[in-house]
């Protein structure tokens, strides 16, 4: 991927400024006359002002943070895999889901740490002055779309963990997951928006989608978990409340960083990294150590199709 700074240098290096006029003369061996020398012009047209766009990109602290979180996600995935093999397959539901969550996050952070999974979006900021002409500033900000792809995979799985813990019905789970995917996509569209209207319009719609997710788990999830034992209900309330607080901080970070650009790209990465560690590995360890052994799933999860659905042909058929 071409660095925008280098691209700007290449684009402006071809601007040539005339410094002097050329003169020429010719003589002939048979004549002493010479061609007239053209006189220099009286003025040179002014060179148009070229203003370099403002570049907002990742620095050393941001790259180091990505590598640290990559290692955390990788080690968490290995631990979750190890815990999965220690228990029967009937009790692995939360282990499998949680391992997939950290695995997707590991891939995402590796991509961002190695220089992939991003693009530059152009933001136009108009500055209005009273005594001078208005000025439109061009800003190129680095946006890590790999983070949003990661969330489109990990956040639905986190919701599945919570939904299975609380015993929610299929209709409520479907609504929550669809609203979550809409929220993630809108946050990506907002990060890539080039005008303030686009950014904050997508942001507002993403917040509405997030409120739908909150409603499904605070109202429908709480109603469903009342049929469970007291230990499960208490765990659902505590881990669900923890997730609610952490997830609510994401749109705040988005608004300060990607939305208003009050933070640098490095500060944005560090803030998201802290939230991701809390929302994924910490959530996963808490859930697996507190509830995993209480789940026992038979049927297709444990034994596959077995003899169900197999086609049987008797000897006397067709004879």
Q: How many runs of DSSP E, i.e. beta strands?
A: 3
Sheet-strand content, in percent, reads 5-15%
Question: Biggest sheet: strands side by side, in what order?
Answer: 1-3-2
How does the overall form come out from the CA principal axes? elongated
Q: Oligomeric state of the chains?
A: single chain
Largest sheet: 3 strands, mixed
Q: In whole angstroms, how far apart are the ends? A: 68 Å
Describe the structure.
The structure is a single chain. This protein has helices spanning 4-12, 60-85, 93-113, 145-166, 170-192, 196-225, 230-259, 265-291, 300-303, and strands at residues 54-56, 119-127, 135-143. The protein is mostly helical. Strands 1-3-2 form a three-stranded mixed β-sheet, with no helix packed on it. Helix 2 (60-85) runs parallel beside helix 8 and helix 4 (145-166) packs parallel to helix 6. The termini are far apart.
Structure described in brief:
The chain has 319 residues and is mostly helical.
List keywords for this structure.
3 strands; mainly alpha; single chain; 60% helix; three-stranded mixed sheet; 319 residues; 7% strand
Layout: helices, strands, pairs:
Layout: H1 4-12, E1 54-56, H2 60-85, H3 93-113, E2 119-127, E3 135-143, H4 145-166, H5 170-192, H6 196-225, H7 230-259, H8 265-291, H9 300-303
Parallel strand pairs: 1-3
Antiparallel strand pairs: 2-3
Helix pairs in contact: 2-3, 2-8, 3-4, 3-8, 4-5, 4-6, 5-6, 6-7, 7-8
